[in-house]
């Protein structure tokens, strides 16, 4: 799972601005993906109730705001997922390497440190780059069914359906939140408005998707209700 600190540079004067994106958005992306993947392991529409007990998830369920009586009223089978963010895990892929760890603090015209390309506008000499992070998140998953017989059957079904105690790779695409201040500064420097007279963002989106290494998407951010930009990447 990846998230990035994003930088922008004015190559001639060696000026640059820095902003950090929303890590919570990336964690929410992955939580949504894992929830849908788990649901897909079981027969279609098997779970009548799905709870994700996290305020960063795409659907919120707070275990503190639900009494036992309210919880019992929920329809079974139930899928309950609790994400756990691991900030200090040093076993992640490519940890402490030049590829994912901040090694060089200073940037100049000949050395960008270990930053990677996002937007490269050679004509205007404007660049947006990012530092890749490898993040860790674990999920505690509980499945509640009506009867013990169903519990036994589904437990064995799951053991036969998914490899146990062995690593596996799941490929997907995520969206990394690009801070709006970075987009605004870039738009000002290249004299392209974020929104035209009609309120559309097509001019800046056309520029980004013509000069960026990854597609740039635009939509409303669920957590804030603001329209934001995102970098779409595998």
Low-confidence sequence ranges? 57-64
User: What shape does the CA trace take?
Assistant: elongated
Q: What's the count of strands?
A: 10
Going by helix content, strand content and strand pairing, the class is alpha+beta
| Total DSSP helices | 5
Cα-atom radius of gyration: 22 Å
Percent helix? 10-25%
Distance between the termini: 10 Å
List SSEs in N-to-C order: EEHEHEEEEHEHHEE
> How is the main sheet built?
4 strands, antiparallel
Strand content: 25-35%
- Enumerate the strands of the largest sheet in spatial order, edge to edge or round the barrel: 2-1-6-5
Mean pLDDT: 80
Give a topology summary.
Elements: E1 2-10, E2 15-19, H1 23-40, E3 49-52, H2 68-72, E4 78-86, E5 116-121, E6 126-134, E7 136-144, H3 148-161, E8 174-178, H4 180-190, H5 202-211, E9 216-220, E10 227-233
Describe the structure.
It is a single chain. The chain has about 230 residues and is α+β, with helices and mostly antiparallel strands. It contains five helices and ten strands. Strand 9 and strand 10 form a beta hairpin. The longest helix is centred in the first third of the chain and has 18 residues. The termini are close together.
């Amino acid at each position: 799972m990846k998230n990035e600190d994003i930088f922008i540079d004015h190559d001639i004067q060696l000026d640059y601005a820095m902003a950090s994106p929303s890590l919570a958005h990336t964690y929410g992306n992955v939580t949504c993906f894992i929830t849908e993947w788990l649901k897909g392991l079981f027969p279609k529409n098997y779970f009548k109730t799905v709870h994700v007990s996290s305020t960063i998830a795409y659907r919120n369920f707070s275990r503190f705001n639900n009494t036992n009586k309210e919880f019992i009223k929920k329809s079974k089978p139930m899928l309950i997922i609790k994400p756990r963010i691991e900030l200090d895990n040093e076993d992640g892929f490519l940890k402490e390497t030049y590829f994912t760890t901040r090694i060089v603090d200073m940037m100049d015209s000949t050395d960008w440190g270990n930053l990677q390309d996002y937007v490269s506008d050679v004509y205007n000499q404007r660049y947006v780059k990012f530092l890749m992070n490898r993040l860790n998140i674990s999920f505690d998953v509980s499945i509640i069914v009506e009867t013990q017989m169903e519990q036994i059957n589904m437990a064995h079904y799951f053991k036969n359906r998914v490899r146990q105690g062995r690593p596996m790779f799941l490929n997907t695409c995520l969206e990394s939140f690009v801070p709006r201040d970075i987009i605004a500064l870039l738009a000002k420097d290249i004299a392209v408005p974020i929104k035209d007279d009609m309120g559309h963002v097509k001019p800046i989106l056309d520029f980004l998707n013509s000069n960026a290494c990854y597609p740039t998407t635009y939509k409303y951010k669920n957590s804030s209700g603001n329209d934001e930009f995102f970098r779409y990447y595998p």
